[in-house]
Structures are given as C-alpha cells and as structure tokens.
Amino acid sequence: HGDDVDRPVKKSDGGWTYFAPDIAYHYDKVERGFDMLIDVFGADHGGYVKRMKAAVSALSDGRVPLDIKLCQLVKLWKNGEPFKMSKRAGNFVTLRDVVEQVGPGVTRFHMLTRKNDAPLDFDFDKVLEQSKDNPVFYVQYAHARVSSVLRKAAEAGIDVSDAALQAADLSGLSHEAELEVARKLAEWPRLVEIAARTNEPHRVAFYLYELASDFHALWNRGNDEPSLRFIQEGDAATSQAKIALAKAVAVVISAGLGILGVEAVDEMR
C-alpha cells in the first residue's frame, strides 16, 4: 500500500506503539463512511506521512484517500526583532495570546498568506499596520471603499439596489483598468474550485489580495481621470454600470473572506 517498511503496532511487553491508536482513529473515520480524510501535521512529522497513508489505504481497500498537510513553523516578530520563546524560561506566546492581541480575523488571514509548507513570519506590528504591506487591511479597505461608494450613491439619489445594478449596461466599461478588474473577477469561480479540490485555502487569500490591488489601482486612477470615478454627476446610467463593477468586487471579497472565516467590514475604524 505504498510503505516500504513493516511497522510494529504492538511492543514486546504487550503495550501499543504510537502508531496503533493512530490506525484506530483513522479506521473509525473509514467505518463511519467518510470518503476523504485530511490530516494536519507539523513539519517534524514528515516521516510519518508514508506509513499513515499506507494504513488508511489498507483499512479502506484503497477507497478512501488521505491528504496530509505538513505545516511549517511560525516565527513571531515583535518591535522589529524575532521573539525567542523558551518553555524552560516560561517565555512563550500561545495562539490564544495572538488572537487576543490582533483579533481572530487578522490571525486567520495572515496565517493563510503562505502555503502550509512555507515558513511564516508573523510580525505583530505589520499585521496591525494600515498599508498595502498588510494584506488583511488592504483587502478589508477595498470592501470598505465599495461600501462608501454605495452610501454616497444612495445619498445622490442613484438607485443601487441589486435589481438596478443587475440591469445596468456594462458596455461602457471599456478602460483597461476597469477591464482588468472584470477579468480578475471572472477568475473567482475557477479559483474557488481549485482551492477546494487541492485543499489549499491560501489560494483564496492570494486571490483576494490581487483583486483588492486591481480595485485600488482603478480607484486611484479615478483621482486623476474623472471619467473613471464610480459616481458620474448627472449620469445615473454610467454611474450604475461603474458601481455594479465595484459591487461585484465587494461581493467576491465578502464571499472569499467568509470562506477564510474573516468578517468583511463596511468602514475602517
């Protein structure tokens, strides 16, 4: 079944090896009808992968695949320096400490800005910074900007209901910056499918950052080119088309953040 070594499950004194309860745990999963299993191991357990996959293959007659994700270590940084932890000295930071300091949403998103098998630097200062260098802020800021546009449009008397935006004529969106956002939006369904099939949620985090970058680029172009601004005074139809594009960005960002367990915000505080 893929392993090249006979693995003992019972010791000479009658006790069980560590491998035995792991086999029993996975056997219970197979017997309960699960058709796919996923394990998350630390990088130091890489040598355990082959034997565990072989065990599940044998238990299920090859019917149930086992995907094992090896996660590299996270290095914490404080005040621009690596934070050295020591259990012996009682100097360590738990995940609970991190969540309490920066929040669960920030923690989740930042942890997913790297593939699981790549080391991660978690800088307490960077994850709270309001800049492009902080991915979670950059994505949240894009969603908040769209919410601001929707509020201002409503105040200007422009109908921004879902029905009105769905009926908007998008043929006038011809600038390259607008088309770039539209092309990025079109990647979303396929991206989600691939991320789900390969069990790689970091793909969603990467995509959201790229989408936010394209949206912010379009927003900034509007500062110099009035025709790219989302609200065009005296032209409700054109405004609705541009706002429909912005609303699509917000919908995708909200959906993507939801997949990652992060809440989208309507305004930055």
Characteristic terms for this protein:
269 residues; mainly alpha; 5 strands; elongated; Isoleucyl-tRNA Synthetase, Domain 1
> How does the major sheet shape up?
3 strands, mixed
Instruction: Based on the coordinates given, report the CATH architecture of the largest domain.
Output: Orthogonal Bundle
Silhouette: elongated
What portion of residues is helical? 40-55%
Tell me how many strands there are.
5
Number of helices: 10
Strands of the widest sheet, in order across it, are 4-3-5
H/E series: HEHEEEHHEHHHHHH
Query: For the residues shown, what is the average pLDDT?
Result: 92
Task: Please report the distance between the alpha carbons of the first and last residues.
Answer: 55 Å
CA gyration radius, whole angstroms: 24 Å
Query: Which parts are unreliable, with pLDDT below 50 for 5 consecutive residues or more?
Result: none
Taken together, the total number of domains comes to: 3
In CATH, the homologous superfamily of the largest domain goes by the name Isoleucyl-tRNA Synthetase, Domain 1
Strand content: 5-15%
CATH domain class of the largest domain: Mainly Alpha
SS content category: mainly alpha
- The CATH topology of the largest domain turns out to be Isoleucyl-tRNA Synthetase, Domain 1
Give a topology summary.
Blueprint: H1 19-31, E1 37-42, H2 49-59, E2 66-71, E3 74-78, E4 81-82, H3 95-102, H4 104-111, E5 120-123, H5 135-155, H6 162-166, H7 176-186, H8 188-198, H9 202-224, H10 236-260
Parallel strand pairs: 1-2, 3-5
Antiparallel strand pairs: 3-4
